[in-house]
Amino acid sequence: MRGACAAAVLLLSACAETGPGARQPVAFSTLAGWGPDEAARALPAFLEECRYLGRLPAEASLGTESGAGAHVGDWLPACQAAARLPADDGVAAQRFYETWFQPVLMSSSALFTGYYEPEIAGALSRGGVYQTPVYRVPDDLTRARATDGRMVSGHWQGGQFVPYWSRARIDAGALAGRNLELLWVADPADLFFLQIQGSGRVRLPSGQVVRLGFGGRNGQPYVPLGRVLVRQGAMSEDDVSMQSIRAWLTAHPGQARAVMEENPNYVFFTALNDVPAGQGAPGALGVPLEPGRSAAVDRRVIPLGTPVWVETRLPAPSRQVWQRLVYAQDIGTDIKGAARADLFLGWGAQAEQGAGAMRQPGRMIALTPRPVVTRP
């Protein structure tokens, strides 16, 4: 699960207006770029998702309390139908989607951002330049249901459930001496951006790569670092990007820690020992994230597992039209509402560059499962 979204590193609100006609059924013919080729390319990701859904109880919730797609069982008939499709048959794949799903316009003015798996330098033990710990989930960190029904993270103190230690308290040593260190990294900013992305890869001096996945969060609020730097006069709103923030932290090592501690939110990790190098880390649904096919959404309005049609453009310099089917397989701290999605772009330098620059408007349509008609 994502620690936060890439846009949250930036400055502005993560929410966008849903626009006129939002949450209304629309025809497949209105989806720009939809056709047999895209249906065929998108189908393997749906089949992979179905393998994970099939392991869950039919009554398991996928995020929303009610409505089409709210529970695992709502998707199983479509999964069974997809499994019977002939391979590499675009016409059959298109017919499948159009038979089993109803497109619903979520937003005509959605905001799309991107995220990725960073690779950073680290070591299994402390020493030399490796002085910043990457912590596993503490045993006293727990989750409880708030009065409004939300699940929140924190710990018990004096009979009260409160948020866990803040970033500043943890940086000051609140968790030291508890044998919670998974790894040690060379740059505190590396850890900060690893926490924003929610998963990543740590390359050891031997060349071995350790995969890390989201383990939990401390329950403290997320404060976008771009907003902090603009408020302090360090940069203008127009200059804020993931790359510009990272450059500022590198250029101001004496101030970097204090600025990062303005964001009290903190993410803990777990080691992913059996994830192949060519596969993304598991998202909130448990499905390995696939570059260009997985997205983080607000599961309170779009259930996990939902196919989502995206119409947008890639950022400059390419400005390429991006029209494709993705799957709601992840969530993020600042992904809120029916007009937001964070697109998983993969790993490596190109994915990092694209995720840092991605902040594009567009149209978002959810494909909800049609009711299964029982025939006598």
TrEMBL record:
<protein>
    <recommendedName>
        <fullName>peptidoglycan lytic exotransglycosylase</fullName>
        <ecNumber>4.2.2.n1</ecNumber>
    </recommendedName>
</protein>
<dbReference type="InterPro" id="IPR026044">
    <property type="entry name" value="MltA"/>
</dbReference>
<dbReference type="Pfam" id="PF03562">
    <property type="entry name" value="MltA"/>
</dbReference>
<dbReference type="InterPro" id="IPR010611">
    <property type="entry name" value="3D_dom"/>
</dbReference>
<feature type="domain" description="Lytic transglycosylase MltA">
    <location>
        <begin position="119"/>
        <end position="270"/>
    </location>
</feature>
<dbReference type="Pfam" id="PF06725">
    <property type="entry name" value="3D"/>
</dbReference>
<keyword id="KW-0456">Lyase</keyword>
<dbReference type="InterPro" id="IPR036908">
    <property type="entry name" value="RlpA-like_sf"/>
</dbReference>
<dbReference type="InterPro" id="IPR005300">
    <property type="entry name" value="MltA_B"/>
</dbReference>
<keyword id="KW-0961">Cell wall biogenesis/degradation</keyword>
